[in-house]
Amino acid sequence: MSVSTAPVLSTAQEDELFAKVESLNADQLREKRRYLGAYEDHQLAQKITNFYSLDALAKRLVSGKWNKIALQFPDNLICDSAIVSQILQNYLDEANENCTSEESGNCGSDSVASASTCCSSGEKTTCCSHTQSNNSKDETTRQSVWILADTSYSPCCLDTIAAEHSNSTHVVHFGDACLNPVSKLSSTYVFGKPCVNVEAVVESILPLIKDESKVCLMSDAPHTYCLSELKEKVIEKLGEWDGEIVIAELNWEKPSKDGQDAVIIDYPFQNTKLEDDDLRIGNRVIKGLKVNSNQQDDDFDQENDIITQEYTLIHLTTPPDSRMLLLSTKFSTVNYIEPQLGELLYERSPNLMKRYRFMHEARSASTVGILLNTLSLSNTLKLMNLLIKWIKDAGKKHYLFTVGKPNVAKLANFECVDVWCVIGCGQGGVIVDQFNEYWRPIVTPYELWLALAPEIQWQGKWVVDFDDVLNKNEEDGDDIDLEDDGNKTLNENANENNTDEDYNSDDNAPEFNPVTGKLSLNKPLRQLKHLQLELDAVSSLSGSSSNSQEKSTDLVKAMSGQLAVKNTISMAAMHLQGREWRGLGSDYKNDEEAENQNEGALVQEGRSGIARDYGLP
After folding, report:
1. Opening angle at CA 285, ends 282 and 288, nearest 5
2. 218-257: pLDDT as tens digits
3. What domains appear along the chain, each with residue ranges and CATH number?
4. Contacts of 285 (CB under 8 A, 6+ apart)
5. pTM of the predicted model, to two decimals?
6. pLDDT tens for residues 167-200?
7. Residue 262 and residue 186 in contact, taking contact as beta carbons nearer than 8 Å
8. Which of 1, 39, 222, 345 fits as disulfide partner to 191, beta carbons 3.0 to 4.6 Å?
């Protein structure tokens, strides 16, 4: 008999696969740091200090007395991380050294100011003697900074998971942020002040404004500081004009609304009082636009949309796809401008009708994969348990996944999942899949709520905020314990979901996928009563036939058209049973249960060592 060979599972190797990446030269670094504006090499440290407001940040850190401080940078700012960490460490060391002396009566003020003269060269190596000044100090009391190597999920969210790996007690988030409250750790936000070509931006805005038009100026968090200046320049250029310009400010109260210790460093609008009737869109508050707070529920949301539809949005920078889709549903016209060159950007907005299609596919899906794209936001557990309840009530099967940063390859490994529901930050944690890269549709919790409703009620909205989805549950009058894990056995689900009235209803009526036109088994858990009856019969039969020595190597058993593993229905097992290839060796037609025919593949020793040292065959 010929020797069996295992299928090839490894990918082809190329010369560039493990090639070493050379460090960037000075010109490339200057191009990456365009947000700093023009500067000479000796001005780099001072530019970075002013850009991140490191003086104010150091005072905040010294007054907080946190021992381990995690610094979180997005990819576009990671080139500044080494210099920022050295400057901050020098600030902290000198401030703490002055605080320990008996003659120092004011910690965190003069000491921080004196430390600002250090590191003027901006070199990545040790740039002054203060770096090693406190090495002999007790590490349990010394304040130290740590650079987080990579974010676990969305770069706009506080990465409390990575911070806890280094036992950090405080997180400093740099760059654009969603300002969603987190359930752990105190935090500080530093947006930075990117360089903006105000005159060029104003010249690009003027052609977009018509007579008696209404305009809303908005940007990402770092560029919000210049919106007031842009508004004044535009009004000055227009002269006599009957229109209106409003500014979308950050909802700076959002990070600390649940009592968390969260502070934004050097934000110009932080002293502005936010009113309850100010119109809100995500984490933005549009000052000057008021809504009728007496209206309730859908009428309140509808009035918000009517108000914003009268305005043309001018947005500095290009927002993420999820936020771009939200803005396109709120405003009549959306324009994007590049802040440094002042050029008008022509971006393709995500299609809302594609979301309508994904909602229909979720409606006809039998297995829903709940993808956790965040573990730090405060309401993650509540929303997860709410989704599980909705899916169970709809008679569908669910699986819970956390894969770190999702990508196409990771999610393609789970073939049994018909549709994904992602729980993540509304700004950077929601996967829009604009170019159909993912194998299965990805919907939001709000879209899943629409899909699981008895009747289709598409409203043409894009809702990604956790609180909005939880409020929908309260409006529906669902009284459940969202802090409970929601795990129940097959018997409990069968008793709750399969009463006589449910059995005699139209749940068994055939349903078709409106996208593919095929028959869809979208409620597999509706057959739990049939499955439970047969499981009981099989258990009693196996107990009475003790003389039977027959054993099976099957992973799953088919019962009444369903499949069960340990008395629990498994859609993954059903999918596995219907596949032609079920693992190594399964693509051969040998009878695996016959004796003396269990022939496996030839085992060979693989490569060892460091992957980059592999030689091509």
Report:
1. 145
2. 999 999 999 999 999 999 988 888 888 999 988 888 777 6
3. 29-190 (3.40.50.11840), 198-345 (no CATH), 352-487 (3.40.50.11860)
4. 248, 249, 250, 251, 274, 278, 279
5. 0.77
6. 899 999 999 998 888 877 889 999 999 999 999 9
7. yes
8. 222
